[in-house]
Amino acid sequence: MEVTTKSMPYEAWKDNEYIESLVKELQDNGTNVIVGSFDKLINWGRSNSIWPLTFATSCCGIEFVSLGAARYDMARFGWEVARSSPRQADFIMVAGTIVHRMAPVLRRLYDQLAEPKYVIACGACAVSGGPFKKSYHVVMGVDKIIPVDVYLPGCPPRPEAMIYAIMQLSRKIKVEKFFGGVNRQESQKEFLAKHPIADVED
Fold it and tell me: Are strands 91-95 and 118-122 parallel, antiparallel or unpaired?
């Protein structure tokens, strides 16, 4: 099979139109093996270099900080680049309690994360409200604000559990379809439309 390529202007390369047209041509010719190999190659790189956002609101954050120290050394997995800006991060580990006043800030941070973006609900507070269940001031799970990919129970979860949760996220990324798969951005928009911040307190 011969794959034809045309000279593309810089704007097309920047918008990723060239690679999309190449993948479409490969799919039309029945060469899904090559497209599948592209998926595996890209997802291998993505899953082994996921960068967390530096974010914590309570005691789970102390456990998360210990991942960067010598004993647990998250650098061996490729996660060591904890970013202070959401625009440079791949996922947010919601480590700690989210009160109603914090909910709009968390949504704003999520909106500013680079695509594709992921969320780990870390600890009992982020999963379901934890010891503050049925209280007037705590959000009963961050999945009422943002879509969650991995739930990590514990109060607080140990660093080993956090490593396992990030490994689960890495496995999830590995099996995604980069080309022609479910459009994550569309599903995220649907979730956010169904979960406005104004309804969190209800």
Answer: parallel
